[in-house]
Request: fold
Amino acid sequence: MNINKKALQSVLMVCAIFCLGFAAKRADRKGSIRIQEETVTIAGVRRDYDIMLIADTHISLCDERDPDLLEKAQARREAFEQESGKVAVRTFHNLVTEAVESDADLTVFAGDITDSAMYASIDFVQEEIGRLDMPYLYVTGNHDFEYGEEYFSKKAYREYFPRLLPLTNTTEQYTVQEYDDLIVAGINDKNNQFDKKAVQALLPYLKGTKPVILVMHVPLQPQYERSELEQQADTVWGLSKDGRCRVLLGETACKPNKTTRKLLDAVFAENSPVAAVFAGHIHFYNRSMLNAESTQFVTGAGYYGDAVRIHVQAKNALAVK
Reply:
């Protein structure tokens, strides 16, 4: 009888361990991540860099500080979880952990990290970003500081964009991380356009001689007709009413205004120092040439656990990490 009891206890213990392990694996799948590994060679860079690119995590947490957005935030959060089968806050935590453990030189957040400028979302992201032991660069997308009915309105800029200061670390619409041999410059999205003062501030870098990686939320339209990126974007997102690509920035897509065109002219100018563009927004991964000189990396949606680790490789053989 005692032998049977001990045997039964052993079986139950094994089953319990198995169930716990299975539950842990299921929980991990809820927050599992998918890191795309890429390498880009940049002339003029004297050492190698590893950069983590994260976008579109759409963190949608809300509490009593934003009572009018409670229902919307819950609906958005549930929609993202149903679509991806993952919990956005867990995938974000795991993405930040990956950045820390991979010893990246820089972590880039390319917009729509928060789904709205809600205090709970901002607090969560700030706490997670606080775990980073390397510099980071944060640009805003088309969702980061929307608030209810306010979307790129004067009120949104005046009242809700300032809430993001703990994340962006600047009141400007651009940010720059400069190294001895490389510039990583980020510019915020302004409803598929760019802010005039931000463009003016970045143009000296974009017309200089030091290599530049430009970070934005909305990807640029490649400079050749019917690129693979544009075809996939049109398939996923559909065309606008006037037959344009809805999710890329370019002459036959989201058409640039005069200010935005100045920045694009600098990006695509002959001998431009812009060697790469990092973006998000479209919720699927893509690497493509923008023109003969510049490569664009677009990360998949962070709420799916997607990110890209980009190894920036010096062109000469004497480069050091």
